[in-house]
């Protein structure tokens, strides 16, 4: 276990030389998408999209770290930058997804705002996941094998915990869709918007599962040994989720309510 390797007293951060071009390409993509989200947030006053923007910033600078590591693969700075930020970026994005479901409930089913709600619970679990993942990743370059193994287990625990929480949240999204389907007329974009929530959660769930496998297998595992796995199961899925939230932005979802059904 462990995402770095010690050989002859030297630390090896990657089993390959990271692709600088791929890192910088995704840095630009995440930067542009994050900028669009920031403009939409100010234009529509959807302030609960701040975590989405923070997640995009994490992804942007995380892939800057990947590009930097392509030129200097033996430096700890770019390794820690990409490890921490790419690891925790989806945690912020998930927080926006959790809040969005609560907003849909208020918009479509006229549910009142509550201080203690399922949304608050999921945001709290997101904070726990963030703390465990950032804490576990910080010790990856300490040089103390015992501490590093503990850090691996902490990150694994945070990822597995997030997998369980997301499975529960997906069940709530499906339940909400069925309830809204019986209440709302079949026109408008609301159905696709709710489906987008479910798809986003599934995408992040699969991404976290691959990360669990990566930390479980360690430096010599298949996931760690193949750089393409990062881009196929992390970079591309997360940029897709952010783009989906631009296409189906909650501010533009205006369902027509059939009061007779209600």
From TrEMBL:
Pfam families, per the entry: RTA1
Membrane keyword on record: yes
Record field: transmembrane: 20-40, 47-64, 79-101, 121-142, 154-177, 189-210, 230-249
Recorded GO CC terms: membrane
Subcellular location: Membrane
Keyword Amino-acid biosynthesis among record annotations: no
Location, primary (coarse class): membrane
Topology relative to the membrane: Multi-pass membrane protein
Keywords associated with the record: Membrane, Transmembrane, Transmembrane helix
Protein name: Uncharacterized protein
